[in-house]
Structures are given as C-alpha cells and as structure tokens.
Amino acid sequence: MRRGPQRPEEPYRINERITAQRVRVVGEEIKVDVYPIQQAIKMAQDQGLDLVEISPNADPPVCKIVDYSKFKYEQKKKQKEIKSKALKVVLKEIRFGPNTDEHDFNFKLKHAENFLKEGAKVKATVFFAGRSIVYKERGEILLLKFAQGLEEFGKVEQLPKLEGKRMGMIIMPKAKK
C-alpha cells in the first residue's frame, strides 16, 4: 500500500489507458470513422495531441483527438458555468411564541413578505417554552393565519407540523411572471 499524497483519478481515459480494441474517432481535420486503437493513437501522436475517450459506453467507444490539458480546462469551465446557473435556495426563519401580539405578528409578516419577494423560502416556527406546550392549537392557528397573510406572495410547501417543542411550517415563493 502506497503512502503519501494520492493523485486524483482522471475522469477520462487517454491514449494507452483506453481498453477498447476499436474506437470511433472524432476531431478537427479527421475523417470520422471506426479505427483500431493503435492506429487511432498513432493518428493523435502524429498531430502532437492526445486520444481522449469521451463516451466509453457507446458501441464502439467514441474518442476525440484533442490536447488533453486544454480539454480538461474546458470541461472544468463548463462545470463551473453549470454550477453558477444552478438555483440556490435560501431559507429564512421567522420565530413566534404561542402568545405573539398582533403588532409583532404584522411586523414579522412584513419581513416574510420581503423574503418571499427576494425569492427565499420562509420557515415560520412557533416555539413552545416551558408549559406553553398546552397551547398547541394557538400555535397552529397563528401559523395558518401567517400563511393566509402571505398567500399572494408564496404558497405553503409544508403544513404546520409539531416537532418536540417547535411547530414549523415552510412557505415557498410563488413563481415570478
């Protein structure tokens, strides 16, 4: 067993690491066709490039004649672009007590409206401290009233649910038109 820093496994097989006997070769200035592996590697070496297996599951596997380091750089760039376009979901939490006053409720409702307008999900939580757990119904009524106040900005993703001493509900923003 080797110790020390391990090199990460390469995602693509190149040149001699390709195991297929015959491969379909694509690339610039190349006739797309099926070639024996040795001939395909020779074609790549003649151009000073590498033979990279792009689609190993195809029959026969598809290989491309490219500069491998440049190819890896392009792949990383594509992955980064895909990642940056992925939607990041933000979850904002708003906490209540079972006896939250009307003014405090409206204040938190306004904050939740702003969060939903920004595209964040809102998790509304009623925390039952001490013996206030006997007011479970009040907590549920409060959360449903909260959802009703936000129905033009978002829709309920998860109905009020009691988990220990907390009752929570998740509201997601409505799709923008």
TrEMBL record:
Residue stretches making up the Translation initiation factor 3 C-terminal domain: 90-174
Subcellular location per the Swiss-Prot or TrEMBL entry: Cytoplasm
A Pfam family the protein falls into: IF3_C
Keyword match Iron-sulfur: no
Alphabetical UniProt keywords: Cytoplasm, Initiation factor, Protein biosynthesis
Record keyword Protein biosynthesis present: yes
One Gene Ontology MF term: translation initiation factor activity
Superkingdom of the source species: Bacteria
Record domain Translation initiation factor 3 N-terminal: where: 14-81
HAMAP family recorded: IF_3 (MF_00080)
Family as reported in the entry's similarity comment: Belongs to the IF-3 family.
Function: IF-3 binds to the 30S ribosomal subunit and shifts the equilibrium between 70S ribosomes and their 50S and 30S subunits in favor of the free subunits, thus enhancing the availability of 30S subunits on which protein synthesis initiation begins.
Subunit structure: Monomer.
Name of the protein: Translation initiation factor IF-3
